[in-house]
Amino acid sequence: MNQLSKNKSRFAFKNKRHAKDLLTAFIFLAPSLVVFILFVYYPLVYNFYLSTTSWNFIATTKNFIGLQNYSRILMDARFWQVVRNTFYYAAGHVSLSMILGLGLALLLKEKIRGRNLFRTLFFFPNITTTSAVALLWVWIFDPRFGLLNYVLSLGGIEGPHWLLDPVWAMPAVIIFSTWRSVGYVMLIYLGGLLNIPKDLYEASAIDGANRWQNFYRVTLPLLSPTTFFLLVTSSIASLQVFDAIAVMTDGGPAGKTKVLNFIIWEKAFVEFKAGYASAVAVLLFLMILGLTFLQNTLSKRWVFYAGSDQK
Q1: 168 lies in a domain?
Q2: Helices marked H in the chain — which ranges?
């Protein structure tokens, strides 16, 4: 009986201590939880509610219409064109910035004169205001007086009309976005490269591997977690692009650069269709969620973590 009483006493003490620890943790987490609830979770739920109404921002009442906004959107061919534009931009921007960022990281990892200066110069565009530098690039892409076409003319090449051309407008925006983000990608890749143990390269050299084999069999696998992080975060950011499009093309020409976030802004604050805009926002959220889930699922096949047998 004495032993049983002691065990009950210990169990009660552990439960009391556990409850105290939980209470302490909750007290420290409460401010962050309040912020998340007010500014993240509540807007998400309220946005979904708005997507089932026909509110126009002015009326005091919101007419419930169920899923009519979604059916209108999904049956609209223009919406699917906007979806294609959005994924076109995301694919071009993410792939270009990651390839160029990795190349710059490999170059600036070497001991070359002025590498710290070059690292700073390449990263600097990332901390600039998008709308401000976008105005500068509008001039660079100007077909008559722009710097880019002037440089091309020196080589006897007639440059396109860039932002005024339905074919070249989106590539021009991708070029601008890549210029702005490549320094950030370079910095993240550089951190990953510096964390690769040098003895792995030494062991590979002893086995007779050349530089290309070192890159393919050592560098890329050990950089796969960094690549996965950049792929996910860059994809999410690219699918939500707005400011560059709004400043440089305003969705034109002929709607070739209209993206989902631009449509949300246009429907909400130009046409005052809050319900329709909210429905598009919900669909964009679901697309981002689905793409992130797909990337996370496929990552098990190619992401390699050092010290782990799993990919």
Answers
A1: yes
A2: 2-36, 42-50, 68-74, 77-109, 115-123, 130-140, 147-154, 169-194, 198-206, 211-214, 220-239, 243-248, 260-269, 274-302
